[in-house]
Amino acid sequence: MLGKVNHVAIAVPDLSAAVESYRSTLGALVTEPQALPEHGVTVVFVALPNTKVELLEPLGDASPVSAFLEKNPAGGMHHICYEVEDIIAARDRLKDAGARILGDGNPKIGAHGKPVLFLHPKDFQGTLIELEQV
Ligand SMILES: C[C@H](C(=O)O)C(=O)SCCNC(=O)CCNC(=O)[C@H](O)C(C)(C)COP(=O)(O)OP(=O)(O)OC[C@H]1O[C@@H](n2cnc3c(N)ncnc32)[C@H](O)[C@@H]1OP(=O)(O)O
Ligand SMILES: [Co+2]
Questions:
Q1: What is the torsional sign of CA 69, 74, 75, 77?
Q2: What is the pLDDT of residue 4?
Q3: How far is CA 36 from the centre of its chain?
Q4: pLDDT computed for residue 5 by the predictor
Q5: Residue 5: in which H helix or E strand, if any?
Q6: In this predicted complex, what is the ipTM?
Q7: pLDDT of residue 6
């Protein structure tokens, strides 16, 4: 069911500082900030030869990242995104297996303009999983 790692996400308290660190200190190519109000985050992507790293900071009052940053004030690894070919088939299989699909259970459009879903970290080794249909 799982395809490639699409991205690994790091929640950060200050996106500009994180971008500067990745650009200047790590010498990476970083995209321009993209506000995603429907997800409650502003994101950039660090382009790597084999995958991407998503840096995200909270946007708005009800951001899903706010509680995480309260517990991890310096930032930290937030989720891993795996590619799937058919997100509805993947969701239904996971639901049947008893995994919790976050939100209303329906895919939203993610940062790449494609459908995404999130799975509860307590169901998967303490790691928040995002699925993206490619
Ligand atoms: C769009 C873009 C894209 O790529 O396209 C994105 O990625 S958007 C990325 C942002 N969007 C999302 O994250 C959406 C999905 N996330 C969520 O629905 C929520 O953040 C959530 C349900 C994972 C956690 O919600 P919450 O923080 O209110 O809940 P709690 O604080 O009660 O957390 C419940 C338990 O899960 C743990 N927990 C919370 N967040 C994480 C995480 N990221 N990784 C691992 N564990 C986590 C908490 O420590 C706690 O454990 P304990 O009880 O042991 O202390
Ligand atoms: Co993501």
A1: negative
A2: 98
A3: 12
A4: 98
A5: strand 5-11
A6: 0.97
A7: 98
CA of 8 to the centre of ligand 2 (A): 7
41-73 b/e (C-beta count within 10 Å ≥ 16 → b): bbbbbbeeeeebbbbbbbbeeebbbbebbeeee
Three-state SS at 73: coil
Q: Which two tokens stand for residue 101?
A: 């699909």
Catalytic one among 32, 70, 85, 130? 130
Burial of 111 (0-12, 13-18, 19+ CB in 10 A): buried
**CA of 83 relative to ligand 1 center, distance in Å:** 19
Q: Whose CA is nearest to atom 45 of ligand 1?
A: 127
Encoded tokens for 113: 């303009």
Domains present along the chain, CATH in parentheses = 4-133 (3.10.180.10)
Regions of the chain where pLDDT drops below 50: none
**Is any atom of ligand 1 closer than 6 Å to the C-beta of 45?**
no
